[in-house]
């Protein structure tokens, strides 16, 4: 589920996110660094994508071609749980008695 960086409300939108799209709840720009999966404050230029151009205003929309809307922590946890279950099933199949 996608959430706005400003108001944290769930957004019912389908990617890709256009540069001019705004949050229906608070009006904040959605195609901005603070909503991007690559955004990280400790990284160089606050971005984990090494080829991305520097963006000064992280809250404003930009033309970054590497923008991917970050998923919520709940989605990340679901993916992690699915990977664990898949690994368990593979191990059980590996050691299954014939």
Give a nutshell description of this structure.
By secondary structure, this protein is mainly α. Helices cover 22% and strands 4% of the residues.
Written overview of the protein:
The protein has 98 residues and is mainly alpha-helical. It has one domain. The chain is 22% helix and 4% strand. The protein is built from one helix and two strands, in the order ββα. A two-stranded antiparallel sheet has the order 1-2. It is elongated and about 60 Å long. The termini are far apart. The mean pLDDT is 86.
Write the layout of secondary structure elements.
Blueprint: E1 2-3, E2 10-11, H1 73-94
Antiparallel strand pairs: 1-2
List keywords for this structure.
mainly alpha, 2 strands, 98 residues, elongated
> How can the largest sheet be summarized?
2 strands, antiparallel
Runs in which pLDDT lies below 50 for 5 or more consecutive residues are: none
Strand content: under 5%
Strand order of the largest sheet: 1-2
